[in-house]
Amino acid sequence: MAKKSKSQVLVESMREKWGEVKTIHAAVLEDDREFTEEETVQIEATLDEVREIEIEIEKERKQEKLQKSIGDLDGLFKASDLNRMDRQVRKSSKSIGDKFVNSQQWIDYMKSIAPEGRIPDSFKGISSPAVKMNDLFMKTVLTGSSATSAGAFVVPEDTGIYEPLGRYPLSLRSLISIRRTTSDTVEFVRQVTQVTQAAPVAESNVTEYNGATGEVSGEKPEGAMTFSRVQELVKTLAVWIPATKRALSDAGQLSGLINDELFADLAEEFENQLLNGSGVGENFTGLANTAGVLTQAYVTDIAVTARKAITNLLINGRQIPTAYLLNPQDWETFDLLQDSNGRYYWGGPVAQGPRTLWGVPVAQSFFQTQGTGWLANWRKMVVWDREDASIATTDSHADFFIRNMVAVLAEMRAAMGVIRPSAFVEIDLTSGS
User: Fold this and answer.
1) Of 55, 245, 387, 418, which shows the fewest CB atoms inside 10 Å?
2) 270-273 — which CB contacts under 8 Å span 24+ positions?
């Protein structure tokens, strides 16, 4: 028979005490009388004991739960399991460049042209298959940096270190709606005017209305609304860099080039286009050049102006804001605002928790023009991914064929549209502008 835990013993003791109380209570009910003074004292004392036991039970159960958790985890952290977990973590944390150089398409291609792992300088006709990176622009990877890049130059002692110049942190894509398309053109319907004709209607008092005095037609008003169909074209973003055949043979070096240069550059330009694209030629029509957005003029100071933008969006846009988007230097100005006693409005340097402005989350973008910010329901900006970002290599460019050079190309295709311009308020944060 299994040994009882301390909490189980305490539960049985509490049940026994409670049984004593119920026995006295049953006798009182059977005799149809009140509790005697002795019974009252006994019951109160017993109930106090029950409460104390209940507290002890809670403590013991917490201890037993903790002991069980430790026991369950004990078997998890064996050497073999830790090795397995480490392999899983390494696999899941691979960078975009690592995924490319470890993709089956690239491995098979390298085997076909370099069975011994090194591309001979005499080899010509490099043209790798495009390898799709379908998680290039997932919200969790838009950082534009990598700690796993290999060296970019040949030195007497290869340290394996390649230190890039750095890239801007990106945030816009995490705010907006992301969808997919299989077409080169996307269309959506935008409501231009809505039904505003509703009115109280009196009951008709005639079967045939002629307009005579006292006649009531009872006719209900007819509503009307209009729509417009909007088309957005899929655009291509691309960039390539030259590399040597030796770089192709060095998987670590190639991974670094892809992570720190190609894909980071695509991601930066994509955010810049979403905000500032001119709409001319192959440029996206960015938010700053979208017709119909609301505007908020500067009023008193930037804090007051930012608050008035909320009312503007609620009344004129009929939208609940999901975030402000500010240039980092403008957000610094908000952070450093002080009252007449030198106290920071937003908590100062030791403020904790999510960063908000008037209760609305704040995102920062280095591609947002300083002095101008946005307040919006960002779900009303949509990106349609047409083709996942892909990588390809070739020596069929200029004189690369005779110079043992190759071109490494990264590109993506997508469309972008602001489906409701009035869901966005452009805020002027500069006095006198």
Assistant:
1) 55
2) 270/137, 270/173, 270/237, 270/412, 270/414, 271/170, 271/171, 271/172, 271/173, 271/365, 271/367, 272/367, 273/235, 273/237, 273/416
